[in-house]
Design the sequence.
């Protein structure tokens, strides 16, 4: 039906559904077991939110369900594409997916400073919790490195040297 024959108050815009973190084309969606569990818990929460429309008008409830359904669909796609990698199965002496790595910056503005972070799946990444995605430039620069080795991180026109101080897979 043409919008010309619909009352102005009846016209609803489709809600804008925020996208999930970008997964580049042709990149496997690696996830730690705890990351997969967190995605499953997020799905349960969204399904519960979908039913929580008791105090909404009919239009608000419809819009709310469309928004939550969109988020659920995106999350289900991510869960379906997930490939669980257990950090305990990784080579324990080198930086790989799931590793917690402590590095020291050997040059640049952070020279002499140490940083520690865990290499995780895209949906688990959270810089404030010291978790970086396996596709992040820093994670890629360190991939395969062993304790004591130096690595080079290219950030556009800037190059930084890092030294791997410690690798663990305890998390």
Sequence:
């Amino acid at each position: 039906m043409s919008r010309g024959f619909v009352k102005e108050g009846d016209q609803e815009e489709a809600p804008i559904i925020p996208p999930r973190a970008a997964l580049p084309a042709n990149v496997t969606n690696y996830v730690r077991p705890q990351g997969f569990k967190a995605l499953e818990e997020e799905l349960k929460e969204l399904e519960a939110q979908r039913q929580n429309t008791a105090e909404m008008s009919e239009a608000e409830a419809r819009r709310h369900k469309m928004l939550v359904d969109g988020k659920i669909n995106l999350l289900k796609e991510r869960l379906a594409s997930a490939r669980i990698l257990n950090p305990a199965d990784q080579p324990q002496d080198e930086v790989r997916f799931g590793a917690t790595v402590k590095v020291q910056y050997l040059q640049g503005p952070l020279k002499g400073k140490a940083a520690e972070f865990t290499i995780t799946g895209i949906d688990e990444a959270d810089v404030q919790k010291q978790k970086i995605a396996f596709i992040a430039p820093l994670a890629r620069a360190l991939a395969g490195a062993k304790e004591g080795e130096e690595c080079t991180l290219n950030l556009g026109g800037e190059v930084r040297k890092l030294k791997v101080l410690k690798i663990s897979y305890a998390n």
Observations:
- DSSP finds three helices and seven strands in the chain.
- The chain has a mean pLDDT of 89.
- The CA atoms of residues 118 and 131 lie 5 Å apart.
